[in-house]
Amino acid sequence: xxxxxxxxxxxxxxxxxxxxxxxxxxxxxxxxxxxxxxxxxxxxxxxxxxxxxxxxxxxxxxxxxxxxxxxxxxxxxxxxxxxxxxxxxxxxxxxxxxxxxxxxxxxxxxxxxxxxxxxxxxxxxxxxxxxxxxxxxxxxxxxxxxxxxxxxxxxxxxxxxxxxxxxxxxxxxxxxxxxxxxxxxxxxxxxxxxxxxxxxxxxxxxxxxxxxxxxxxxxxxxxxxxxxxxxxxxxxxxxxxxxxxxxxxxxxxxxxxxxxxxxxxxxxxxxxxxxxxxxxxxxxxxxxxxxxx
Length: 293
Fold this sequence. Notes:
Helix content: 25-40%
Number of helices: 11
Shape: globular
Order of helices and strands: HEEEEHHEHHHEEHEHEHHEH
Number of domains: 1
Largest sheet: 10 strands, mixed
C-alpha cells in the first residue's frame, strides 16, 4: 500500500476537466473527464435508461448545473487514489460557500477512508479547491411549474428502509417511480414486489478501469459518500420525470459515530446532518421550485 504523504508529494493536482451530456431514444448518457497529471486520465460515465418513461429535454442550464454538481461528487472516487492537495475545476463555477460545502462533505464522507488508511489531517488542509472556469448557469427559481409536478421518486437500495417506504407509498403508486442505481437483483425484486415493475428508472454507473488498476497497484482506496451521489442523481431524475417529491430512506444509525471520540461513520452521507446540508444546498444552488423530503 502506498502512503498518503508520498502520494500527495508526488501528485500535486487533480483536474475536473469536463462533462458531456448526450441522449438518444433509449438513454441519457453523462460522461466525465478527470485527470491526475503524470498518473492517469479517468472517464467514468452514468447512463439513465428511458424505457417507457417520458423524460424532459436535457438541453437547459438546470440539467447542466446538476450534471456539473454530480461530477463534484463523482470526482472524489478518483481523487482518493492519490489525494492531490490542489483540486482544479475547469468546467463550472463555485462560490466560496459551495467550495466549503463540498470540502465538508469530502472530509466527513471520507471519514472511514481516512481512518483505515491512517490519514490524520484537518478539513481545511485536506484539499484546496480552485475554480478555473467562467461558465455559469442561469437558473429559473420561479414556482410556475410546481402545479404540473406529481408523484414521488423512490430510490430503492434493496434494504428494509426503502422497502418500507415503497410499501407506505404504495396507494399512490399511479404517480410514483422507483429509482435503481446499479441494477442489483434485490433492488429490482423489492421494487417489483411493491408494485412498480414497469415504473422503474434504471441508472448504470461505470467506474473507469484505470482506477481499478491503480487500486490493484496499491494506490489508496476506501469507502466514498455514495449516498451524496444518490441525492444529486435523484434530484436530476425527479426533474427529468416530473416528480414533485423524493422519498429517500436512511437508517438512523448513520447519525452515530463508529469510532469512539471521532466523528466517523461509514454512512455519513445518510446522516440527518447531510440531509439538512443537501436540502439547503439544493434550495440555494440548484433550483427551489422542486420539493424534496
